[in-house]
Amino acid sequence: MIAGGITKFKKAHPDKDYRLLVKEAFDFALADVPRLKREQIDGSVGSYFSDHFTRQLQAASMVQDYLGLCPRPSRRVEGGGATGGLCLQSAWEAVASGRMSICLAFGFETMSRVNTWKGNDFIALASDTNFDYPLGGFYTAYYAMMITRHMHEFGTTREQMAMVSVKNHRNAIYNPYAQKPSRLTVEDVRNSPMVATPITLLDICTMSDGAAVAILADEAAAEAVCDRPVAITGIGAGTDTMRLADRPREKVPLLPNERAGDYRKLKYPGVHSCRGGRVAARQAYRMAGLSDPVEELDFVELHDAYTSSEIQTYEDLGLCRYGEGGRFVEEGNPFMPGIDYGLTGANGRFPLTKVGTLPVNPSGGLLACGHSIGATGLMQSVFAFWQLQGRIKNHLGSASLQVKNPKRGLIHSHAGTGTYITVTIMEKT
Amino acid sequence: MHRTAGGTFNGGSDPLIIRDYYEIEYRHSYAQDSPFFTGIAQGKLLGTECKRCIFRFATPRLHCNRCGRRTRWFELPLEGNIHTFTTCYQAGELFRNETPFSLILVEFKGADTLFLSRLVGPEPGTIRIGMAVTARFVTPPQFRITDVYFVPVHRSTRGNRVPRASLTKNEL
């Protein structure tokens, strides 16, 4: 990866359509690599989730046109919430196969064009429309059922979920691109309006307007135009059944740091875990040569559409064992060192004894940055790129979110109730 | 403000925003899932079974996702247990006037997968994993998945199972 660009994620950008949002993100990226000429870009992959939001089919063609990249090759990829992650991997494939030397990945969503409830409706249409959607048309309900079972199996608590919200919203205070930075307490999260038990309003990300781009290049091109390129060293992807009801209850696919004995009684994935995420992580770790993710990763940007899904994802990625996700956050592992979360000391009752073992969502994640669906997975790649370049301060105006000397990061993009999941490992060169 | 059949123009605003509407009638076919939907219209819950894998799908699919062979229809019991649940206080646009409502995934004896449905009756906060539930059917059928819903099974003092009274469509 040689450059990244993003727009601020906002509830609404009424003065810019998706073409202009991508153009801004694209120009941002180009400005970061002045030696790269637009003519050197061989083609693009575009991503957005829903034609319903744009009411413009082939909207990615409209962007290709607006950016002045015609007649070069382009395609749109779509995969629900994982659209951005899939887009990045598609661009990687274009370069890795030798088809392109330099490929642009761009993504966007303009979700403000309909009201929130219609937006929820569009999102829920990405569930089985015969058997699931007509029962409520609501994705939060599916995640609520998943975490209810997770709580039943493993004893995960609402307070542990709330700690994820406190962490990510507080991190975002130092990220000017984030939509919803806030200083919250565990009580604020628990006492916010109930949406679908046990998930409250502050356990859920917001819909956004926004765009993000990543420019990928082969080694020779990267060295020619970029002083500090970041290597993509591991790619993984997985899927699962569209309906939660159809998930099997079998054995856990193990990571190198796990043993079969860890999960003798666990029926997997059931509705409490995401098999696609585990499979994606396993491929990416193998390709990047990782055997112990907590030791070998320096930060993670993962798809926290819900506080509950961040906890589920710790386990899928093997940051802790299945069942230990709640404890992982309670101990402080995914928190950023040096940031006061208000959880400890006089006003807090949480010891956070292991702060910073592996920071998760230092950017603020989807919960606080917002979720502009087609852009989200690419936004993660941009934050990871800046982390690995050590340039968080240059771009965010503060070094508070800069992980110290990071060598390797992981980004994770997720659709449906785990129906498409991508994991990408990025490394400092 | 200027109204036309095509929308509303908020004069003088920058950017210019208009209201726009979009309506479609689909001829939606349940296709190979049809026997399930005609089944619930007749008060039956149909699953499918793969004889080769010895695997029973509580939510039917005409082809087994394990071996790819065609499955056979079978009748599920009407009673099951709650595998997980949630009570929704918000919903997608079409369902907001139905809140609060509860969703459950039901597990059945003799089936290997689950079934998503609404649970009607118990107060929010009293629903528990493992609770016994029984299917009820809406009459006349609307030929939608909401034609079936579940109510808790209450045991009488003699140990007989007494399902709660059936509800009409309006009470759902």
Helix fraction of chain A, binned, reads 25-40%
Shape of chain A: globular
Largest sheet of chain A: 5 strands, mixed
**Strand portion of chain A:** 15-25%
Kindly report the spatial arrangement of strands forming the biggest sheet of chain B: 8-7-6-9-10-11
Tell me the distance between the termini of chain B: 41 Å
User: What is the number of helices of chain B?
Assistant: 1
Helix content of chain B: under 10%
Task: State the end-to-end distance of chain A.
Answer: 10 Å
Estimate what percentage of residues of chain B fall within beta strands. Answer: 25-35%
Output the helix-strand order of chain B.
EEHEEEEEEEEE
Instruction: List the helices and strands of chain A in order.
Output: EHEHHEHEHHHHEEEHEEEHHEHHHHHEE
Low-pLDDT parts of chain B are 165-172
Q: Pick out the low-confidence regions of chain A.
A: none
Derived structural class of chain A: alpha/beta
Total strands of chain A: 13
According to DSSP, the number of beta strands of chain B is: 11
Oligomer: heterodimer
Largest interface: pair, residues per side: A-B, 41 and 44 residues
